[in-house]
Amino acid sequence: MTHKPRVLVSDALSPTAVEIFRENGCEVDFKPELGKDKDALLAVIGDYDGLAIRSATKATEKLIDAATNLKVIGRAGIGVDNVDIKSASRRGIIVMNTPFGNSITTAEHAMSMMMAVARQIPAADASTQAGKWEKSRFMGVELTGKTLGLIGCGNIGSIVADRAIGMKMRVIAFDPFLSEERAQQLGVEKVTLEQLFPRADFITLHTPLTDKTRNLIDAKALEQVKEGVRIVNCARGGLIDEAALADALKAGKVAGAGIDVFEVEPATDSPLFGLPNVVCTPHLGAATKEAQENVALQVAEQMSAYLTRGAVTNALNMPSISAEEAPRLIPFVKLAETLGSFVGQVTESAVKQVEILYDGHVSEMNTKALSSAVLAGLLRSQMSDVNMVSAPVMASERGIKLVEMNREKSGVFDGYIQLNVITEETSRSIAGTVFSDGKPRFIQIKGINMEAEAGEHMLYTTNRDVPGIIGRLGGMFGEAGINIANFYLGRDKAGGDAISLISVDAAVPADFLEMLKNAPEIDSAKALEFSL
Questions:
Q1: Long-range CB pairs of 182-187, under 8 A, 24+ apart, other chains included
Q2: Which entry of 56, 325, 432, 487 is 20 to 30 Å from 464 by CA?
Q3: Which of 208-217, 230-239, 389-398 is the least confident region?
Q4: Where are the domains of the chain?
Q5: How far is CA 103 from the centre of its chain?
Q6: Which fold has domain 6-98+290-309?
Q7: What is the pTM of this model?
Q8: What are the catalytic residues?
Q9: How many helices and strands (H and E) does the chain possess?
Q10: Is the predicted pLDDT of residue 371 greater than 80, yes or no?
């Protein structure tokens, strides 16, 4: 009986999301109380293949180390600050988020904050409900005709741009990944950060928190902004130096600010609290019924699709593989892994560079996923706990350079993968393809053409091309009582270098392998094991 993937939901997800896991063939335990009980979560996490979370659960290195069966962590939402992605990658665990489920909600909150700051709505409300009538005190500004400076013009930023243009604002945007063509489509002007600061009447932030974006708006940046600018942050805490912003607000350089996210959350104290020209909300950017439902359903669909069908969507540490392409791609993933495994098993010196050529129709596939599979196969001979997720991380940590090349069909095969691995001592090359039966086949080894179907137990030998080798090898196998399933041969020229790949029914015994290595006719012999 096939094992059903087990999923733990340790934060509050909707009943519909929980049901999606069940409908898609997963067993699911809904235990939202575990998100705030790290010891209890630690005690049970080893039983699960998937972990679905929001923000309460902290997927720390300690938790990930205890998650011996975990294959995927799904975050219902865009931010993954509560997941140790590096540790997850090393352990081969995919980390997914749902970047689009709350985009409209977050964009709408940014627009709401911008209008609330422009018209001082919260302070005016508090004053009016206190029985005062301070009409002259709450003089505001219009948005129409003003310049909005977007820092980040991706999914959420582009929605804000669309809404702002609808309100007759001029929109300028700083985003290193924004092309001129995309800027024209959105109707925004692409600018540098240095150009944005002095021109913008309003600034909104829509960028992730990274080492490069931390304190993006600091005291130095605030010296460059336009007098009377209003700043809104509904993206991530830490993008703004809160103390520097408080000083600029008190000095009047910044006329107002709308802050939904803080450097430390929950935010019980901040230099911004108590200032009359600041509107603060408790990280409500994604807090609508629609958004919460959308991201919950999305993460359930993504996780179950991966656990049951191998489809990878919105992964932060692995190339995406759609459910549609998975059936076509998976045989080539196995081929890529097998090629890597072959070289890994015959290589004894440190690997410096991995060169992968994708030829023909294979070059049009998801080659990032295939390269991850090559690295996984290559490294698995040196370390057992490695897969497509962890392999690129481990290769990078070991200083292995990856070179990928694509080429149109160049030979008799419609599509193939060629692998060349450069080590400290030598280089090794191998190529393979997949036929209609879906099984990996070797088509070239050491520049020698041959056609050999990969088997679970194989023996690889090199020798000079002289008469009697085949008979001698067959005799040695017969004397040892080892049954040959398939025998494949290749040579570069008559009397030159020759190779053989021999499939056998069981693992090659160590003493027999040693006997082969010592045979005068054989230059080298290596037992190979493949997981097929």
A1: 182/153, 183/153, 186/153, 186/158, 186/161, 186/162, 187/161
A2: 432
A3: 389-398
A4: 6-98+290-309, 103-280, 322-442, 455-532
A5: 19
A6: Rossmann fold (3.40.50)
A7: 0.61
A8: 236, 265, 283
A9: 17, 22
A10: yes
